[in-house]
Design a protein that fits this description.
The structure holds two protein chains of two kinds. Chain A has two domains: about 240 residues, 3-Layer(aba) Sandwich (Rossmann fold), CATH 3.40.50.300; about 160 residues, no CATH class. Helix content of chain A is about 40%, strand content about 15%. Chain A has 14 helices and 13 strands. Chain B has one domain. Helices cover about 75% and strands about 0% of the residues of chain B. The longest helix of chain B is centred in the C-terminal third of the chain and has 43 residues. The two termini of chain B are about 35 Å apart. The mean pLDDT of chain B is about 85. Classes of the chains: A alpha/beta, B mainly alpha. The interface between A and B is medium-sized, with 25 and 28 residues.
């Protein structure tokens, strides 16, 4: 340890190699609230290439708050955060996609239990616009034999390894400097994995990548070039080591959120299990009590036809439901502005159930009604997703009574039924 | 004496509401049996209209409270938000319930999903229920306050929509009785007097309710601060 700066404020004079122009991350006059308390106030930090900043303050001092603020997950009361010189979030509510991909490991793993390790890490590569052979990395962390297993089948420590690898991957793939944010990466890792992690951090640092890590683990503290307890900072020398050689190959990635959402649905069948079954139950219940032949009112019959797709939409986005596990939605929200979704499957479900309703209630297929039903599921799903996303910031988003707001969609549905009866 | 102001408002309002009920059920004249399917049920309007009026006042308070919290982060704004949502829920449920009773007697159905006025007002009441129940399910914090204030702000869009609904899309719900403009004035003066007493009583009652609710929220916040200091926090 060589030098100390007071009050956690960045002091250019103390930095041996960090002119402002090279700054990869800058936190300017940050104030962040959590609960009713101000966790960070007037906090400044500059991180340059080859910096490994380890935050090691007491519990509740704001380490995770710094990491999550850098990942754009927390709103700022004051100040701004810049990645590679570009504003990514500020207290005015601006929230921009970072100019370069970054690595992130949250305290919760942010993993979906139904994903395989291979799929999840490939998605992380795609977020960086790259692909790679994952075998050497998985072997070094002792996960090669589990490559095609679902994450839900792994032990807690193994799942943590996947989350840590996902955090490191954007830097491992690319030769250009990348930011990596790791929140308690050492928790749950065995000694071998900890040694590999420490070695990887050192080699990636030598390659020019920068780290902000929240940890108390002695092995992680040894990796630091700057030890920061959110009050003051001290510098720490690191012995040079062999730099990491980038392993990624560029890949053209389009519609990633839609593709990933579709893959989640394909592997879990959540779309059928939630929305499809809801629609089937509505159809079955209606048929149990109603004899369509005895009803002459066309509005009523069209209402019965469109009831099932409407119910399918009201069940909500199945992908968002899946992503409530282990803060996966937050992990995605940090990287992209558009989360994986069920936009692809929604109109298909609508088309199927409206067509089925047409045959059951109207005794004939009606393509106009079927298209209307497809659109109805898509729009209803979109509205329900919007309402649900609005509550994601809450401490207990699952506990809030979101369904109380859904009757707002009944009136538009009734008006559409009235219109559809005239078609 | 100043500390008792909310209780005085509540007491006066309650007495006024009881007077309105008595006058509405016993003194106000009956409506024409030709104009209504169920003339006797029409007397529930002396409860329904003032409670809906009070609900709108409460939703207004909810909106202002939400805006003050959202833009100024003022604890007073949050207390107004809490009080407005609770009072809005109470009065909204009164209006919805009495409307359903009248609808069942007059229209033969308690609710019509295609009537804009019924639905927008029902949604406002559901929004208030969502805010009250949702707030109880979350720890108090800026995240909770920001989220529910946002819903309070968005929800207020329904207030003017509800108000103009019967003017533009009159489906089942009758047209305006209060502030009806040139088309109004069909009320007999004695009916108008009872409605006026009802509106005043509910207004006084809702002010008392809001003041007491704000006081309770303030005390809850103080209690939480004391608990936190006992826990060793800030």
């Amino acid at each position: 340890m060589v030098e100390t700066s007071p009050n956690g404020r960045f002091d250019v004079a103390l930095q041996t190699r960090t002119p402002m122009a090279e700054s990869m991350l800058s936190l300017v006059d940050l104030e962040v609230r959590r609960g009713m308390g101000v966790v960070l106030s007037g906090f400044n930090l500059e991180v340059a290439s080859k910096d490994v900043v380890v935050l090691h303050g007491e519990n509740g001092s704001g380490k995770s708050t710094v990491i999550e603020s850098c990942a754009r997950l927390l709103p700022l009361e004051k100040g701004s955060i810049h990645h590679h010189g570009a504003l990514v979030v500020d207290s005015e509510g601006r929230r921009n996609i970072p100019p370069q991909p970054f690595g992130l490991t949250l305290q919760s793993n942010g993993l979906l239990g139904d994903e395989t390790i291979e799929n999840h890490l490939s998605t992380v590569c795609s977020l960086s616009g790259m692909k790679t052979d994952l075998s050497p990395i998985l072997e070094s962390y002792g996960l090669a034999h589990r490559r095609y297993d679902r994450i839900g089948q792994l032990s807690g420590g193994q799942a943590r390894k996947v989350a840590v690898i996902a955090g490191l991957l954007p830097a491992m793939l690319c030769s250009k400097p990348r930011l990596v944010f790791l929140d308690e990466p050492g928790t749950g890792l065995d000694n071998n994995a900890l040694a590999v992690l420490a070695s990887d951090i050192g080699r990636l640092r030598e390659a020019g990548h920068a780290f902000v890590i929240a940890s108390h683990h002695p092995d992680i503290l040894k990796c630091a070039t700057r030890l920061h307890d959110l009050e003051s900072e001290s510098l720490q020398d690191q012995t040079p080591c062999k730099p990491w050689k980038a392993i990624g190959v560029e890949e053209n990635v389009r519609l990633l959120s839609t593709k990933v959402g579709h893959r989640y649905l394909r592997s879990t069948r959540a779309g059928l299990a939630r929305n499809g079954l809801t629609a089937l139950l509505v159809l079955g219940t209606l048929l149990a009590f109603i004899d369509p032949i005895s009803i002459e009112n066309p509005t009523l019959l069209v209402g019965f036809v469109l009831a099932a797709p409407f119910a399918a939409g009201l069940a909500g986005d199945p992908v968002l439901y899946l992503m409530r596990e282990q803060r996966a939605a937050d992990w995605w929200r940090a990287h992209v502005n558009r989360l994986p979704n069920a936009d692809f499957i929604a109109p298909i479900l609508g088309l199927i159930f409206t067509s089925l309703g047409c045959i059951l209630f109207l005794d004939a297929f009606d393509w106009k009604l079927s298209l209307l039903g497809a659109g109805m599921v898509w729009v209803t799903l979109f509205c329900v997703r919007f309402i649900e996303l609005s509550t994601l910031r809450l401490a207990r988003p699952n506990a809030v009574f979101i369904r109380l707001l859904l009757p707002i969609l009944i009136l538009p549905w009734a008006l559409i039924v009235d219109f559809a009866a005239t078609l | 004496m100043r500390r008792r102001v909310p209780e005085i408002f509540l007491g006066l309002g309650f007495a006024g509401i009881m007077t309105t009920l008595y006058l509405g059920l016993n003194w106000a004249p009956s409506v024409s049996i030709d104009a209504f399917e169920s003339p006797a049920a029409q007397r529930i309007f002396y409860w329904h209209v003032p409670s809906a009026w009070a609900a709108f006042i409460a939703f207004g308070v909810l909106f202002f409270g939400s805006a003050i919290w959202f833009f100024k982060r003022s604890p007073l704004g949050w207390r107004l938000h809490v009080a407005g949502s609770e009072a809005g829920l109470a009065c909204g449920l009164m209006a919805v319930w009495s409307g359903c009773v009248w609808g069942a007697a007059e229209w033969g159905t308690p609710w019509d999903w295609s009537d804009i006025r019924l639905n927008t007002f029902g949604l406002l009441t559901l929004l208030a229920l969502f805010l009250v129940l949702g707030r109880q399910s979350q720890p108090d914090g800026v995240e909770t306050r920001d989220t529910f204030s946002t819903f309070g702000l968005y929800g207020f869009v329904l207030v003017p929509l509800t108000y103009i609904a019967t003017r533009f899309w009159q489906i089942r719900h009758p047209g305006p009785v209060i502030a009806a403009g040139e088309d109004g004035g069909s009320l007999q003066s004695s009916m108008a007097v009872v409605l006026l007493i009802g509106a005043l009583s509910f207004t006084i009652f809702i002010i008392g309710h809001i003041l007491i609710s704000m006081r309770i929220t303030h005390l809850e916040q103080r209690l939480e601060q004391v608990q936190k200091s006992l826990d060793g926090g800030n």
